[in-house]
Amino acid sequence: MTTAPAPTLEDVANTVGALMRFWGFREILGRTWAFLYLSPQPLSAEDLTARLRTSRGNISVALQEMQRWGIVHREPLQGRTKGYSAETDIWRMISRVYREREKYEVDKATGIFDKALKKPLSAFQKKRVEKLRELSILASAVLERTTQASLKNTAATLPLLLKLHRLLTSE
Q1: H-helix or E-strand spanning residue 46
Q2: N or C terminus of the chain: which is more exposed, having fewer CB within 10 Å?
């Protein structure tokens, strides 16, 4: 019986890249972050270019974007070479991205629902738009509370989640 070979670091990086693509990010961001996360020391852009077999420009753009998100940090290497390391607090990283990306979309939806409620609607439509508005307000609160809490202290979010559940299961 032959066993499958153990996944390589490249397999791990490709898997993180695929997950990032699934969540709506560019795959190169996940692959780059994964190689940095799995490295015990900072890596240069040249190291990443070689490991990821992509262009220097692609790596440069990915590193700049991830620095803006706060999920990659610049660190000095020998000489004038710039090194990069990954944010290792994964909860902090996810929380920041959620706050800056998902919350924006949810809050935008709430604004649209507010505007729609100022237009003439049938009683049925008004009730449905009000429910969507309430859902978006709750989703925003859940995102905010969840991303502010540490992974160990998410109990404060439970009442909001219960309210969200009631809203989603009510007619």
Answers
A1: helix 45-52
A2: N
Q: Please give the order of strands across the beta sheet that includes 72-76.
A: 43-44, 82-86, 72-76
pLDDT of residue 65: 92
CA–CA distance, 94 with 142 (Å, rounded to integer): 14
Q: What is the pTM of this model?
A: 0.70
Residue 87 scores a pLDDT above 70: yes
- The three state secondary structure string of 96-128 is HHHHHHHHHHHHHHHHHHHHHHCCCCCHHHHHH
Sequence-distant (6+) residues with CB within 8 A of 106 are 136, 139, 140, 143
**Cβ-based burial of 117 (10 A; exposed 0-12, middle 13-18, buried ≥19):** middle
State residue 44 phi and psi, 5-degree precision: -85, 165
Find the length of the chain: 171
